[in-house]
Amino acid sequence: MIDFNTITACGECCMGCKKKLEDICSGCIEADGRVPEWAGSGVCKIHACCKEHHAKFCGLCEKFPCEKLPQMISWNPNIVEHLKNLATQFRSEMTRGE
Ligand code: SF4
Ligand code: SF4
Q1: Is the per-residue pLDDT at 22 higher than 80?
Q2: How far, in Å, CA of 66 to CA of 28, rounded?
Q3: In the chain, what percentage of residues exceed pLDDT 70?
Q4: Confidence check: pLDDT of 37 > 90
Q5: Given the CA of residue 58, which atom of ligand 2 is nearest to it?
Q6: Which residues line ligand 2 (CB under 6 A)?
Q7: Has residue 34 got a pLDDT over 80?
Q8: Spatial contact of 29 and 14, defined as CB atoms under 8 Å apart
Q9: Signed CA dihedral, 87, 92, 97, 98: sign only
Q10: Is 35 in the pocket of ligand 1 (CB under 6 A)?
Q11: Residue 81: how many CB atoms within 10 A of its CB?
């Protein structure tokens, strides 16, 4: 089972990240998107966009998969598939918990 409380807007998990373990970054959920990685622009745009759309992560957004997503998460060529799978797991866990 996935702990969805630790899943970030882009569908990653900060737990176990070297930067978090070394206290360089507190994690994007904890920092509300204001992480060192995005210090130049102030806040992670993906985190901010999910907040704006009231989505826990992009896969649960009403606009998913939006056209800007592949470019916003350019480091993962399989991002749409990854987020789609994550959303399926999330919904199935929510249904099981009802
Ligand atoms: S890209 Fe944004 S949402 Fe994804 S892990 Fe980094 S700060 Fe968090
Ligand atoms: S799917 Fe697109 S519109 Fe929705 S939160 Fe993600 S980046 Fe924003």
Answers
A1: yes
A2: 22
A3: 98
A4: no
A5: 6
A6: 46, 49-50, 53, 55, 58, 61, 63-64, 66, 68-69, 72
A7: yes
A8: yes
A9: positive
A10: yes
A11: 12
Parse the chain into domains and list their residue ranges: 4-96
Query: How far is Cα 11 from Cα 85, in angstroms, rounded to an integer?
Result: 10
Distances (CA, A) of 78 to 14, 29, 98: 19, 22, 31
State the amino acid at position 35 in one-letter form.
V
Which of 51, 85, 57 shows the shortest CA–CA distance to 69?
Answer: 57
pLDDT in tens, 56-96: 999 999 999 999 999 999 999 999 999 999 999 999 998 88
With a threshold of 0.85, does the pTM exceed it? yes
Q: Which two tokens stand for residue 88?
A: 């399926």
Please, which residues have CB within 8 angstroms of residue 70's CB and are 6 or more apart in sequence?
79, 80
Q: What is the mean pLDDT of residues 48-56?
A: 97
What does the chain come to in residues? 98
